[in-house]
Amino acid sequence: MRGWWAGVTDPELERWRLVLGEPASAMGALGADGAARDAALEWLYGRDGDNDQRDVRRGPGGRSGGDGASTLTTVDWLNDINRLFPQETIERLQRDAVERYEINDIVTDPAVLETIEPNPALLRAVLQTKHLMNPEVLRLARRIVEAVVRDLMAKMATEVRAAFTGTRARRPSRWKQARDFDMRRTLRANLGHYRPDERRVFIETPHFFSRTRKHVEQWQVILLVDQSGSMVESVIHSAVTAACLWGLPGVRTHLVAFDTDVVDLTSEVDDPVELLMKVQLGGGTDIARAVRYGAGLVEQPRRAIVVLISDFYEGGSTATLVRTVRELVEQGTKVLGLAALDEQANPVYDRDTAQRLADVGASMGAMTPGQLAAFIAEQVAR
Known about the structure:
By secondary structure, the protein is of the alpha/beta class. The protein has three domains: 11-116, no CATH class; 167-212, no CATH class; 219-380, 3-Layer(aba) Sandwich (Rossmann fold), CATH 3.40.50.410. It has 16 helices and ten strands. The strands form three sheets. The chain has a six-stranded mixed β-sheet, with helices on both faces. The protein has a two-stranded antiparallel ribbon with strand order 1-4. A two-stranded antiparallel ribbon has the order 2-3. Strand 5 (219-226), helix 11 (232-245) and strand 6 form a beta-alpha-beta unit. It is globular. 33% of the residues are buried.
């Protein structure tokens, strides 16, 4: 008796067939494109060691993408997925290839680098594997870094500069910007256009707040960034955030990367691509040493913000770290500890160390780059 699907012709059924693999072959034969997609998925996910535990086996009776998987090169696979899948799926497949299965030739093979479409997952992979690259490959990999950083800069620069343009005033404005929309005044002014049958207020005259310019004095913002392997997202976003802050009125930005060593990258802040190409991810972590270095950069304690971006797993002296943070706070310097600095600000950190720093006066939390810029702008405007 044939199954209710009666062959794989519906797109939804084909998706399930691709997800389930060969065990779902009773659903019917795949078309030419479907078979190619199945082979591409098998090339990547067929190397998953969990398949045996789940009784998903290759070969007779198990998942198989045909005999192409054994001869398919990385370049062939990338060409196939770019032809067969939408962009969102392509980026997910590439991310799994470099992060889950460590297929490093995606970012170390010149033939791949010449054709691959840059995306954030590949940027992370380049930063983690650039020590494996010869100069020619590194030159090609730089294209990925430049493209992704350019996109991040375009997005984040707007958020950062908006935080420094001024605070909302209660008086109305003729400038119409979504972020200054005055909801209450707009509703009051347009209540006459309420339609009870539709339960809607139709807006004929929107109203907006104006903004006052901020009068700012010179502040130092010292970003101390943990460059251990797990902090790659924070390193990327810190570099771009520092570049966005660079040159803003009232702000002088320092960027310091650390593991067990401390490297002052302030001279490269205005060029985040060059900065990221110099970062060396990995190694241990000596947070106390980095904070001592940052403390030595402070010129006017009450006009300084030290931002410590780390997972707070201290490989050095926790007692020295806590004591140095206490001294900074007592002299009037604002200390902000961030457990994450990517777009989602998902925190993974040593809560005990973070609590000890909070107990001596540091502000601890997790912020996106835009939120960090708003925090800095608020402090600078006081």
